[in-house]
Amino acid sequence: MTEREIRARPRNRVIVNKTVAPYLFLAPFMLLFIAFLIVPLIYAFDISLYKKAMVGGVKFVGTDNYVKAFADPKFWEGVGVLFKFAFLQIPVMIGTALVFALILDSGVVWAKAFFRVSFFIPYAVPAVIATLIWSYLYGPAYGPIGQTARFLGFEAPDFVSAKWILGSIANIAQWEYMGYNMIIYFAALQAIPTDLEEASVVDGASAFAFATRIKLPMIVPTIIVTVVFSIIGSLQLFTEPFLIQNMARSIINSNYTPNYYAYTLTFVGQQPNYAAAISFLLGGVIAVVSYAFMLLANRRIDR
Amino acid sequence: MADRKNASPVTFGFGRRDFLRGAAALPLLAGLPKMASAEDTVELLVWAWTPDTAVQAEMFMKKFPNIKVKIENQGGGKPHYDKLRNAIQAGSGLPDVAQMEFNSIPSFRALQALADMGPYGANDVKDKFIDWTWAAGSDGDAVYSIPWDSGPMGSIYRDDIYSANGLTPAKTWDEFAESAMKLAKDKPGTYLTNFVGASDAGWLGSQLWQIGARPFHVNGEEIHIEVNSQKAKDLLNYWQKLVDAKAVDTTPGWTTEWFAGMDEGKYATWIAAAWSPIVMQQSMKKSFGLWRAAPMPMWEAGKNVTSNWGGSTFSSFTTSQHLKEATQFAVFMGSDLEAAKLWNTKQFLFPVLKDLAADAELMGHPFDFYGNQPVNQIFAESLSEVDPTFEFAPFQDYADQILTDALAKAIGGAGKMADALDGVQDAVVTYAKDQGFTVV
């Protein structure tokens, strides 16, 4: 900085070096990030290296918990369930969210703002409440769906049976997160310049062709990001099976998903050390799967 | 209540206190308020889930004006214990006193979290309690919890369904099975009962207790584990037969579906504990007043052996700064006759005090929930027939979880419940060894 610049600056302003400034702006976020994410992670990693027993107390065991977790069939069973869940739920959710976003963006519907908000509201409902609402609706003998079906003279499927339960949970997730994804797509679609639409109209493209050939390809990066978020979210599934367990005890056991397993180990089995190792292993699985998906998607786009 | 000596040594000499205790417990407690007021006010935080605990806490505060009790409800059962364990793990945030069911005492003792209330005078009231209830929470002169209510088992049934179908309460389990088969055939869609053993390990524990299975025996750091005993298999085979014949239903317990099933008349009986109407009357409006109680079915005719399910105690924690006051509170809640009477008649908590089990007026008290039947007699008899030798594991919750996972899977169609016990045995033994116990 030259002398003149410094003089020109009003006196009451605090002068901050340009290399320092960004960090000051980041500070509020970084503080929270460190306090509520980094520190707990370090703490969890630390306890994952120990083992506390009811008799014998605490001892350092190094990587023992990780070796055990890696070979634990209960953990991998849970991962298997979540893969099934993700393959079932993510495509449906992303697909419907896209369709609704395109419809809202096309301008053919009335009361656009109303529909946009209505689809988004479930996302504002906490997962606990959503699951309680749905588990009431799913009740086979006394739930409203079952009763209505019987009133109309047919039998509704047993939503909490082995055959349907994963679909029932996926449906709750669909209800909760479809609107959230839809809003993201809608925002991305709104950002597409209008001259593209004018150009396609001039070229004689139908609204459908414009949507599928121009709009969709333009928001592919957004779609990829939402899919990655959904994969991460799916692999962390906990609230829905946890709350619906008492209705479907024979299908949802206490290690139904890896997070559920970690919960059981900590709060029922008094094994927080092992649970910490399970959590890190799950984090590893999520990182690998997300990275694999990104790699796959990017290769497709490059082609 | 040793502290009373310290509170007012002048007006309440040792001799008079002993005299009063001998004469009657009630006037003794009535005389307390004047003595306590000299001390500074102490605030006690209490975690309890039973409805209206605050009413009895008010009674306590009237007698001990220097103690302010704050009741917090952390949710019944599992959420309550999860939060307690969390606080123990964290080393802070524990209440001064918490409600603690009989089956949870060993696991919290294993965590070395429960305070010994013996030095604070808890043993003074020892003889008032029905022996096994006191024994469950103490170890010689060390007192880890003071009994509050018990859960003697009985048969709670729908009078309307029984009389409409010519049924009488079964005296033996064989009769019970016959009635179940008959009702399922005569009236499809109505079941004598809903088997909850594959979803409610607490209930199953009461059945194992009655038939004579003894899954755990703890001796210091040694533990004997026999989850898959022949008696346990006999019990599960009995129910398996009824389940396979579709003579009983298998809706998971404690769900809206299950409560509605009882209220709507789909299920005619719940073999349950004396406290069960607390939960039943909250969700069963239609059937209120139609229920009756009878003794639970016996495995051998003429040889009455019953069991206990649930029932709570009050425990304090080593972290509490007010162990003396915590003990006073626990002792009051457990042994004050007026308070105990009130929560028996209003809250269906079955007494653990010898004096009350022998109180003719209380035993004759009619309950509207039971169509004015004086059910206390039935449960008092059951309480006297409880075999006190049943033990819980220091990791009962975990064992229950493993057991329920396995039985629920079996009842969902993957094999027989009795066979699933062998896998549970292995899992529990592995766990116990992992936790440092010597399995014998």
What are the segments of chain A in which pLDDT stays under 50 over at least 5 consecutive residues? Answer: none
In this structure, how is the largest beta sheet of chain B organized? 5 strands, mixed
Taking strands numbered 1, 2, ... along the chain, how are they ordered across the largest sheet of chain A? 1-2
User: With helices defined by DSSP (H or I, 4 residues minimum), what is the helix count of chain B?
Assistant: 21
Do you know the CATH architecture of the domain at 64-128 and 166-302 in chain A? Orthogonal Bundle
Shape of chain A: globular
**Pair with the most extensive interface?**
A-B, 26 and 36 residues
Main β-sheet of chain A: number of strands, strand sense, barrel status? 2 strands, antiparallel
Total DSSP helices of chain A: 14
SSE sequence of chain A, one letter per element: HHEEHHHHHHHHHHHH
Q: Percent helix among the residues of chain A? A: over 70%
Q: Uncertain spans of chain B, ≥5 residues at pLDDT below 50?
A: 1-38
Seen as an oligomer or otherwise, the chain set is heterodimer
CATH architectural label of the largest domain in chain B: 3-Layer(aba) Sandwich
Kindly name the structural category of chain B. Answer: alpha/beta
Alpha-carbon Rg of chain B, integer: 22 Å
- Trace the largest sheet of chain B across and list its strands: 2-1-3-13-6
Molecular structure report:
The complex is a heterodimer of chains A (303) and B (440). Chain A is mainly α and 303 residues long. Chain A has a domain of 202 residues: MetI-like (MetI-like fold, Orthogonal Bundle). Chain A has 14 helices and two strands; from the N terminus they run ααββαααααααααααα. The longest helix of chain A is centred in the first third of the chain and has 34 residues. In chain B, helix 12 packs across helix 21 and helix 20 packs antiparallel against helix 21. Chain B is of the alpha/beta class and 440 residues long. Chain B has two domains: 196 residues, Periplasmic binding protein-like II (D-Maltodextrin-Binding Protein, domain 2, 3-Layer(aba) Sandwich), CATH 3.40.190.10; 218 residues, D-Maltodextrin-Binding Protein, domain 2. Chains A and B meet through helix 13 of A and helix 6, helix 13 and helix 20 of B.
